[in-house]
Specification:
Elements: E1 2-3, E2 9-10, E3 24-27, E4 33-34, E5 47-50, H1 53-57, E6 60-61, E7 73-76, E8 79-81, E9 83-85, E10 92-93, E11 105-107, E12 114-115, E13 128-131, H2 134-139, E14 141-142, E15 154-157, E16 160-162, E17 164-166, E18 186-188
Parallel strand pairs: 1-3, 2-4, 3-5, 4-6, 5-7, 9-11, 10-12, 11-13, 12-14, 13-15, 17-18
Antiparallel strand pairs: 7-8, 15-16
């Protein structure tokens, strides 16, 4: 088990000598940046311990294999998490922050305004995206299609599956890649929409 203590940045090659043996890692809330390939080849990595999900979402990961979640399961305060709930107050999810193949659902609050590239990359197990405010969802700036979890999963608005989308009144702009969502069968725009 590796505890990364009071470090704000990790750089390439940090764990390359032990990559085949590293089974667990704990990330501190103070971590701000992880360089390209830091966890490259850590195929034995099974558990990634995090005490503060909000802090994890603010880490600047340089690539998919700079995030240990690419290899191991997320443990939040000691409990394995596959249903991820983004905390209220988070306005940005950084690139590669949830590059986590083990995630099966994600709840996104209305506070989120921007999602970095590949934030939800390799979401092959992702099945459900829960939102409560469709107007807020429309305003999110997704940096690319794989930044949007809808690329991988179905949209649930207030717990109900959405296949026929109705854009709410008052929405004037729909953000980039907001509905990168293959399951949609129809979209109805309100008269207020000016930019798509």
């Amino acid at each position: 088990h590796i505890w990364i203590m009071a470090s704000s940045a990790l750089s390439f090659g940090r764990f390359e000598r032990m990559s085949q043996r590293l089974a667990e890692v704990s990330l501190p809330a103070s971590l701000e940046k992880v360089g390209n390939g830091v966890f490259y080849g850590c195929s034995a990595l099974d558990k990634v311990y995090v005490a503060d999900l909000a802090a994890l979402l603010e880490v600047s990961f340089s690539s998919m294999d700079s995030n240990p979640l690419y290899y191991g399961d997320l443990y939040l305060n000691g409990t394995r998490v596959t249903d991820v709930v983004i905390p209220n107050g988070i306005t940005e999810i950084k690139s590669y922050a949830l590059y986590y193949p083990g995630m099966t659902s994600i709840t996104v609050p209305a506070d989120v305004q921007k999602v970095g590239s590949n934030a939800f990359g390799d979401g092959t197990a992702l099945e459900k995206v829960y939102v409560q405010d469709l107007s807020a969802w429309c305003a999110i700036d997704f940096q690319m299609y794989s930044a949007n979890p809808l690329y991988y999963a179905d949209l649930y608005l207030n717990g109900k599956l959405v296949t026929e989308l109705v854009i709410p009144e008052g929405v004037t702009k729909i953000g980039t890649y907001a509905f990168s969502y293959p399951a949609l069968t129809s979209v109805t725009f309100c008269t207020d929409v000016e930019t798509v």
